[in-house]
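From the methods appendix. Each design record in this collection lists the tokenized structure first, followed by the designed amino acid sequence. Records were kept in a plain field format so they could be parsed without special tools. The example shown here is representative of the layout used throughout.

RECORD:
FOLD TOKENS (425 positions):
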């Protein structure tokens, strides 16, 4: 098993207020992905000297992280690294910042073609409409598995380079049984976080027959896609699916053992958020147009609101007010929503910069939303934090603080990336 020490970290963001909660002794039993246990009380005092007490982002200065195999084994002051039998590979961060790997909990990266012309028209004043999805459906149906796979892997590579270590991937550009099944199968080759989104939009051949298309989605299409998927999603919006149609889709998915997540209130206000909460969705995504009732219901629920600021950037809609949400007690995540229509960025640093500049978040809140927030939106507790027993997914920035992610927008600040303990960049 390989052991790596990252030391001389100028600013470490752990996302846990006490990084030693759940510590496991060096060389001790390895917890599985969902359980962290044990204690390391010997180092607790030294953490409070180097950490920021009461800081929910778990910020440490002059810190070190020890990685054993695919897990984090120890976190603490660089001056107090424990002895490791057998030694370790040492990586000197030279005062740089280290954060958890980004968890991008919303993407649509299995598709053919692109829509650069549509984007350019929008920048010249055209409005974004859900119907544009249909042109990508035509290009996706016409692409071979190998073409789609090569494209998909290219996007993943692009994401990893920018610090994203976990990606959720949706289907939704097939919209017939055969193509939707191809898309979830291709996604399942590269991530466990696969979402069946057969209810993305009503395809052209079902024009004006939305209810019949929903019958297909919850029948034969769900049968073909459920075995390869963890999640069920629906675009609950004017121009896509009504609230009753969305309910049918989500309830059918839940009955098949899939967990719900919902696209809602992207283009205007609606009842999708309330439906998502009622059905216990892990996340409701977009939330660009939220009523006070939506915000209160989200705050009282376990449903995460996943903001997708690349969409507002690229469709010229107003950015959601994350300050209002956070102050009300809503858990907010940030994701890229990489897709050829509404948001063709794969850069979590870019979305963090937008969230800070346009959505009223502090940089610490935006980094939390892009890491621990994404993990919450995927109901994962093995990622999104840097703590003993968790997956060793980390990003070293070529900057002394996480603030630089928003302060230096557009600059490639990701210096090194570890995924499952392996230095991949
Ligand atoms: O999340 N909102 C629905 N689906 C995508 C857009 C897809 C497209 O325009 O191709 C989204 O923004
Ligand atoms: Fe989306």
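DESIGN:
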């Amino acid at each position: 098993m390989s052991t790596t020490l990252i030391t001389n970290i100028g600013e470490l963001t752990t996302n846990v207020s006490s990084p030693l909660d759940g510590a496991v002794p060096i060389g001790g039993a390895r917890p599985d992905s969902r359980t962290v246990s044990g204690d390391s009380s010997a180092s607790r005092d030294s953490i409070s000297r180097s950490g920021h007490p009461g800081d929910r982002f778990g910020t440490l200065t002059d810190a070190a992280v020890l990685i054993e195999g695919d897990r984090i084994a120890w976190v603490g002051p660089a001056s107090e690294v424990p002895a490791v039998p057998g030694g370790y590979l040492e990586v000197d961060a030279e005062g740089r910042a280290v954060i958890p790997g980004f968890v991008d909990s919303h993407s649509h990266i299995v598709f053919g073609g692109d829509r650069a012309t549509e984007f350019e028209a929008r920048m010249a004043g055209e409005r974004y409409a859900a119907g544009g999805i249909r042109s990508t459906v035509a290009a996706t149906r016409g692409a071979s598995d190998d073409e789609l796979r090569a494209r998909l892997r290219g996007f993943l590579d692009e994401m990893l380079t920018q610090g994203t270590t976990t990606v959720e991937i949706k289907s939704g550009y097939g919209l017939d049984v055969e193509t939707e099944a191809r898309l979830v199968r291709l996604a399942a080759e590269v991530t466990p976080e696969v979402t069946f989104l057969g209810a993305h939009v009503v395809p052209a051949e079902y024009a004006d027959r939305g209810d019949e298309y929903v019958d297909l989605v919850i029948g034969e299409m769900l049968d073909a896609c459920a075995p390869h998927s963890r999640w069920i999603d629906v675009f609950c919006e004017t121009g896509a699916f009504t609230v009753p149609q969305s309910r049918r889709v989500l309830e059918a998915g839940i009955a098949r053992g899939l967990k719900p997540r919902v696209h809602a209130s992207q283009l205007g206000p609606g009842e999708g958020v309330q439906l998502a909460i009622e059905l216990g969705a892990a996340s409701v995504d977009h939330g660009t147009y939220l009523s006070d009732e939506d915000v209160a219901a989200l705050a009282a629920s376990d449903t995460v609101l996943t903001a997708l600021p690349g969409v507002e950037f690229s469709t010229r809609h107003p950015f959601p007010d994350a300050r209002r949400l956070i102050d009300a007690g809503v858990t907010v995540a940030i994701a890229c929503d990489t897709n050829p229509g509404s948001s063709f960025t794969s850069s979590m640093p870019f979305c963090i910069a937008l969230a800070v500049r346009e959505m009223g978040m502090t940089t610490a809140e935006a980094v939390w939303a892009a890491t621990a927030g994404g993990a919450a939106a995927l109901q994962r507790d093995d990622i999104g934090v840097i703590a003993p027993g968790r997956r060793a997914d980390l990003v070293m920035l070529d900057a002394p603080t996480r603030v630089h992610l928003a302060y230096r927008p557009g600059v490639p600040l990701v210096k090194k990336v570890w995924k499952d303990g392996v230095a991949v960049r």
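APPENDIX NOTE: The longest helix spans residues 145-161.
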